[in-house]
Design brief:
alpha/beta
């Protein structure tokens, strides 16, 4: 049974960058992986596409033939893909048991109320895939209370629409230190703790929020989010190996890969370790690494990389030198080091 990630999220959240980074990471740990591009507007990708929806339909063709704007053309393209699902099914069968990353379009309509993307996901699931939806959001959304509340609403709506195992991910967490300081620790936002504490900060953000009508609306939205109690966030710094490992561990648990992949007895030591639970980062580690003590950790990593580079560049022993050492060891002569 193959496994797959469905990568969704608004424009600029880092979907294609994530697919490229995760593809490299999975390949490095010995998990055979393929990337499928489902975004008809994405004509420049860093990764190698196993399947590209632009082979079926392109945004430019639709805009010209149907006289639609970019957003309408993307919706039309996904409807076209739904009608011609046989093309995608044939392509996926050719990938065998590969672990698949689906790079999806960024129009929020597609994963909040338009049905085509959801219908495509459900048909992929019927092919035997174990799916996990990965909803990416730029961590900049934490810097403004109103933007954070909007992010929570969008995440909640996407979870209800997709109706699949689902993880919300705050991307670019390594950039967070460069923004304005957050009023609360990171765990407040990732665990979606008592949102009423944000109300005074919303008033400080905009005096309009002090209006009784806005205050009532904000309280109602907060109560709605808390009543569902579904939204929480993972974090990601795509260039950090430990951050990628932590997220992949959460994805594997959500999708069932943690309980045994398709490779079975042929799993590498990395794959077994990922299932058995390698040391990962909890949210306190993320707070310390990327916010509280980032400069200190960056310096440690720089020094570690320098040591690795020196070790790689160090001259190795020649065959003659190795033979001389072996002769000494076998001669019974005691070598004393001063």
């Amino acid at each position: 049974m193959p496994f797959a990630q469905l990568v969704i999220g608004p424009p600029g959240s880092g979907k294609s960058t994530y697919c490229d980074g995760m593809h490299q990471f999975l390949s490095a740990i010995g998990r055979k992986c393929s990337v499928v591009n489902l975004d008809p507007a994405n004509d420049h990708v860093a990764y190698s596409c196993a399947l590209d929806v632009r082979e079926l339909v392109t945004l430019e063709e639709i805009m010209e033939d149907e006289e639609l704007g970019p957003n309408g053309a993307v919706l039309y393209a996904l409807e076209d893909l739904e009608e011609n699902f046989q093309w995608l099914e044939t392509g996926l069968k050719s990938l065998g048991e590969d672990y698949v990353l689906f790079d999806c379009p960024g129009q929020v309509e597609l994963f909040t109320h338009h049905s085509s993307l959801r219908n495509i996901f459900m048909r992929i699931q019927k092919l035997g895939y174990r799916l996990v939806v990965l909803h990416l959001t730029d961590s900049y959304s934490l810097t403004l209370p109103s933007l954070y509340i909007s992010t929570l609403l969008l995440s909640l709506r996407a979870m209800l629409q997709m109706d699949l195992p689902h993880l919300n991910v705050l991307t670019k967490i390594d950039k967070l230190q460069s923004y304005s300081p957050l009023p609360f620790n990171l765990d407040y936002y990732t665990e979606v703790q008592d949102l009423s504490y944000l109300l005074p900060h919303m008033v400080a953000e905009s005096p309009l929020m002090a209006n009784s009508k806005f205050e009532g609306l904000n309280k109602a939205i907060i109560e709605l989010i808390e009543d569902f109690g579904l939204v929480a966030f993972e974090t990601l710094a795509v260039e950090d190996k430990k951050s990628m490992m932590t997220l992949l561990h959460a994805i594997d648990r959500a999708g069932g890969y943690a309980f045994g992949g398709a490779e079975g007895a042929n799993d590498t030591i990395w794959q077994v370790a990922m299932r058995e639970g390698m040391p990962t980062m909890d949210i306190r580690d993320v707070q310390e690494r990327w916010i509280d003590r980032r400069d200190e950790f960056d310096e440690k990593e720089r020094l570690a990389w320098e040591e690795e580079a020196k070790a790689r560049d160090a001259p190795s022993l020649t065959d003659d030198e190795m033979e001389q050492i072996e002769q000494l060891l076998n001669s019974g002569i005691k070598v004393v080091r001063r």
